[in-house]
Amino acid sequence: MVTQPISEIHPSRATARSSSPDKGCGALSSPGWESVAERSNHSHLFSAAWPALMRIAGPARRLQSDVEIVSPGAPASHLHVLVEGWAYRARVTETGGQSISALFLPGDIVNLPALLSGEGEDCVTTLVPSRIMSLPLKRVRALQEEMPGITNLFLSLAMVENARLCEWIKCLGRQSATQRLAHLFCELAVRLRATVENSETQIPLPLTQVQLSDIIGMTHIHTSRVLSDLRKTGLVEISHRRLIIRNMAELQRIGEFNAAYLHDRENADVESIERGGRPSLPSK
What we know:
This protein is an alpha+beta fold. The chain folds into two domains: 6-148, Jelly Rolls (Sandwich); 176-255, Jelly Rolls (Sandwich), CATH 2.60.120.10. The chain is 39% helix and 20% strand. It has ten helices and twelve strands. It has helices spanning 33-39, 43-56, 114-117, 137-146, 149-174, 177-191, 209-216, 220-233, 248-255, 271-275, and strands at 10-11, 61-63, 67-70, 78-84, 87-92, 98-104, 123-126, 130-136, 195-197, 200-204, 236-239, 242-245. The strands form three sheets. A five-stranded antiparallel beta sheet has the order 1-3-7-5-6. The longest helix has 26 residues, at 149-174. The chain starts with 9 loop residues before the first strand and ends in a 9-residue tail after the last helix.
């Protein structure tokens, strides 16, 4: 097992907002790729590849919130898989603002472009205390030679990530602030495999209003007003870092949300990963 160098992970310039005891980057015993795959939205893909990936993965590492996992332009020697927690990808403006272009959940590879570029593209930071497992790039590339199907795993993950990004661009360009927020809440509910209790959908929501603003491209004040309006309709409630969706169907209607772009994991092509054939994803 190869341990990921701590030197690759840099404390974020942001001030840590968590008082959780989950501080530092100490190595933890690995929970195994089985548990990562089971909890991931990509379990249909990982299930075919995890035995080989487990052989080269380093032990899980614990990170506090606001730790920079990936730095723009910094050389990358590992791919980082989020095992627990949340992380986000952002690009910072010259005036110090930021635009969040992706949210990473358990099972996501947070720096997939490094497989080709060998360096960090945008800043990736933990949102809450999290754990990551790391795959040495040299051994990943050797594994690709040994098992061509592994390449299809990474290609399929890249296709899914690109589909999410394209949907976010559509929302930013063609939707109102209310629609964007409704759409985001619906996406998170699907990606987190939301639990339904008494016809209510509940998911964790560790995002602050400022971070929600950075995602939907609105000011903090405007986002606050939109959240207030959604609460008044009785559609959603946010309490203790949890989002409760009272009427998922109506929220989907408002956000013009169709989950097809997230790709039905039950219909994805696993055989191509196992055999190395050409990958395919379900059409919209």
